[in-house]
Amino acid sequence: MTGDGDVLAFRAAGQDGFVPSSEVAPPVCATRGGGAAMPTLLVGGEVRRATPGECLALQGFPPGFLDGVAVGGRPACDTDKYRMIGNSWAVPLVGWVLRRIDAELAAEPPTSP
Q1: Do 31 and 37 contact (CB within 8 A), yes or no?
Q2: Calpha distance 49→6 (Å, rounded)
Q3: What angle do CA 64, 67, 73 make, to 5 degrees?
Q4: Three-state SS string across 30-57, please?
Q5: Which residues contact 43 (CB under 8 A, 6 or more apart)?
Q6: Other CB atoms closer than 10 Å to residue 85's CB: what's the count?
Q7: Residues 6 or more apart whose Cβ sits within 8 Å of residue 41
Q8: Cα of 58 vs its chain's centroid, Å
Q9: What is the mean pLDDT of each run of 10 residues along the chain (113 residues)?
Q10: Is the pTM of this model over 0.90?
Q11: Which is the most buried residue in 1, 35, 39, 87, by most CB within 10 A?
Q12: What CA–CA distance (Å, rounded) separates 49 from 9?
C-alpha cells in the first residue's frame, strides 16, 4: 500500500508452468510484452504508473537521487531512470549485506596464506 487505499502492482515474470509455493516467489518482470514495464498504481479507482521518484523511494534511495544524471550526454529521461532503478539493488539490502560481511570478518581470526 502506498497511502490511503492506493495499491502498487507489478506483473510477475516466468508464470508459464510456475507452481505457487509458500517458499518461492516469482521474479518481478522488467518488461511488459517486449516494452519497458513500470510498476502501476491504482489511485482513487484510476490506474497510473509510478513515477521514477516513487520507484526510487521503494528501493530506499533518497529523494532526487537521479536528478541531474546524464545518459549519452543528455539529461536522463524517465525511461532511462526506470532502467537504472530496475538494474539497481535496494539500498537497505546492500547495507544489511555489508553489515553482515563486516560482522563475520570481525568475528573470524585472520588467517595467513
Answers
A1: yes
A2: 12
A3: 165
A4: CEECCEECCCEEEECCEEEECCHHHHHH
A5: 6
A6: 21
A7: 2, 6, 7, 8, 9, 47, 48, 49, 50, 54
A8: 7
A9: 56 51 52 53 74 90 93 94 90 92 84 66
A10: no
A11: 39
A12: 10
Distance (Å) of CA 52 to CA 32, 41, 110: 17, 13, 44
Residue 50 burial class via C-beta count within 10 angstroms: exposed 0-12, middle 13-18, buried 19 and up: buried
DSSP string of the chain? --SSS-EEE-PBS--TT----SS--PPBPSEETTEE---EEEETTEEEEPPHHHHHHHHTPPTTTTTT-EETTEE--HHHHHHHHHTS--HHHHHHHHHHHHHHHHHSPP---
CA–CA dist 18, 21 (Å, integer): 9
CB-side exposure of 91: number of CA atoms within 13 Å? 11
End-to-end CA distance of the chain: 51
C-alpha count within 13 angstroms, C-beta hemisphere, residue 86: 18
